[in-house]
Design a protein that fits this description.
This protein has 11 helices and 10 strands. By secondary structure, the chain is α/β, with parallel strands linked by helices.
Length: 277
């Protein structure tokens, strides 16, 4: 914990100083209770991304939501649990997801580009080089890259597993200055806040091992396995490269803009030797 530091100003400081920002958007942030894309939320997030872009920053999006969009589109497959149907739903939903982003960014005169990746792409030097070159070319031309895992072809051997991990891989590959998680939670808590009214948010994290030893991540599946742990481990990965990570509630209107101005807070993970500290 930084003595005397205002956590809101700390988050705002790192966001303001970051020139290259990876924004990871969770599926729960983009979709409503029935799995359909919540266009109001998407439009608000796109508006915030454009605020960063107009401020001179380069922004890359890692977005979940294809599976949810697929189930909303082909409802009769919702209960199908075998891998073929799951991958088919992602293939269908990815189209719906990108159509939403295309329409939202078009309001600002911006084009979007889709990049679907697997773990194998990050373990091959030639593929890695081409990923970097594609990202840099898109950014130089003012096109917003939107990255997701290629769920329609990914099997265990080449599956990254979750988009928190994917966003960490992308952030390190791109030499990002900051990784932002937009989630349906406000930050990291010492225990599941949905089941414990006395749960306390942990606003600053310097030592992730110390953090994990002091919080309860076993109670709820939505708390313990789906989101919190993967975000913590992703923050650990980028932290090894001195990239700080910030967790904010993406369901809050203008949360990124407000965090930059010190009006909103969340959890910040300090990367090793972070320049702003």
């Amino acid at each position: 914990m930084h003595k005397g530091r205002d956590i809101m100003s700390a988050i705002g400081e790192v966001l303001k100083k970051s020139n290259k920002v990876v924004v990871k958007i969770g599926s729960n942030v983009l979709s409503d209770d029935e799995g359909y894309i919540n266009l109001d939320n998407m439009k608000n997030i796109v508006g915030q991304v454009m605020h960063l872009v107009e401020d001179g920053k380069k922004v890359l999006i890692v977005s979940s939501g294809a599976g949810a969009c697929g189930m909303a589109t082909i409802k009769k497959w919702a209960r199908r649990k075998d891998i073929n149907y799951k991958q088919a739903l992602c293939a269908i939903g990815q189209v719906e997801l990108m159509m939403g982003y295309k329409e939202c960014f078009a309001e600002y005169g911006r084009h979007v580009a889709q990049m679907l990746l697997t773990k194998e792409d990050f373990s091959d030097a030639d593929r890695t080089l081409h990923i970097r070159n594609t990202i840099y070319t898109l950014e130089d031309e003012g096109v917003i890259p939107i990255i997701n895992e290629n769920d329609s072809v990914a099997v265990d051997e080449i599956k990254i597993g979750d988009n928190d991990s994917l966003s960490a891989l992308v952030a390190t590959l791109w030499d990002a200055d900051c990784l932002v998680f937009l989630s349906n939670i406000e930050g990291i808590y010492d225990k599941d806040p949905t089941a414990n009214k006395d749960a306390k948010m942990i606003e600053e994290v310097e030592d992730i091992d110390e953090l994990l030893s002091g919080i309860d991540v076993k109670g709820s599946s939505s708390f313990g396995t789906g989101g919190v742990v993967t975000k913590i481990e992703a923050a650990r990965k980028v932290g090894e490269y001195s990239i700080p990570a910030v967790l904010l509630c993406g369901k809050k209107k203008d949360v990124l803009i407000k965090a930059m101005s010190g009006e909103e807070t969340g959890t910040i993970f300090y990367g090793k030797k972070a320049a702003f500290r």
